[in-house]
């Protein structure tokens, strides 16, 4: 008997993805805990500055991934099983981010193994970047799942621009083995860079979401 089920829509995939992004970004705050024991509350709150820093970086990182995920799916018009699987792998890496965020914050508190924690954080970002680019490459090569909102040349340009991400995060990861602070600075710079919409602009065209 033939399969008469309707294929999953792009909208449904985005809705599920949005839910995972929302949960992951909310879980970040649960890793910030007030130190136990006696002491001045203001001092305790000030002592949590590494947790605040790690929280802000990871919150904005997940937000940046979510924005670019939305920008990517503006051009994707069809979904198949392979794309679903690759998107699940991307979401898996996103939902894992609260853990390396907690590890990074804890090591920055006592300055012990901070280089290892910064590198571990970077490895998670590299893996996430690989999965993100796998989604776009699969959808865009040969214009396999794309609509007419982007040309093949524009899609190829975007593959190059987004493809720089895992490479640059790998550089930041290796830098973390030498200096956690330098690695964090590079993570922040990359975060700022990828916040911007890197999609090619056509002359005279209106901005897209």
UniProtKB/TrEMBL annotation:
Localisation per UniProt entry: Membrane
Record flagged with keyword Disulfide bond: no
Substrates-to-products reaction catalysed: K(+)(in) = K(+)(out)
Record field: transmembrane: 12-32, 52-69, 81-99, 119-146, 167-196
Keyword presence, Membrane: yes
Xref: InterPro entries: TMEM175-like
GO molecular function: potassium channel activity; proton channel activity
GO cellular component: membrane
Bilayer disposition of the protein: Multi-pass membrane protein
Keywords: Ion channel, Ion transport, Membrane, Potassium, Potassium channel, Potassium transport, Transmembrane, Transmembrane helix, Transport
Family that this chain belongs to: Belongs to the TMEM175 family.
Protein name according to UniProt: Putative membrane protein
Organism name: Longispora fulva
Organism phylogeny: Bacteria, Bacillati, Actinomycetota, Actinomycetes, Micromonosporales
């Amino acid at each position: 008997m033939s399969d008469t089920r309707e294929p999953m829509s792009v909208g449904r995939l985005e809705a599920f993805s949005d839910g995972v992004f929302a949960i992951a970004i909310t879980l970040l705050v649960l890793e910030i805990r007030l130190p136990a024991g006696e002491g001045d509350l203001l001092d305790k709150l000030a002592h949590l500055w590494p947790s605040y820093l790690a929280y802000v970086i990871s919150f904005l990182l997940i937000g940046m991934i979510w924005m670019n995920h939305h920008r990517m799916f503006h051009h994707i018009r069809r979904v198949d099983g392979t794309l679903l699987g690759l998107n699940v792998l991307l979401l898996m890496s996103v939902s894992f981010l609260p853990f390396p965020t907690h590890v990074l914050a804890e090591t920055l508190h006592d300055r012990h193994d901070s280089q290892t924690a910064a590198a571990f954080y970077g490895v998670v970002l590299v893996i996430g970047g690989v999965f993100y680019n796998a989604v776009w490459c699969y959808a865009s090569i040969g214009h396999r799942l794309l609509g007419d909102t982007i040309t093949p040349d524009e899609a190829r340009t975007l593959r190059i621009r987004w493809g720089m991400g895992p490479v640059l995060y790998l550089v930041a990861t290796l830098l973390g083995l030498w200096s956690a602070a330098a690695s964090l600075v590079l993570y922040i710079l990359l975060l700022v860079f990828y916040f911007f919409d890197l999609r090619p602009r056509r002359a005279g065209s209106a901005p897209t979401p």
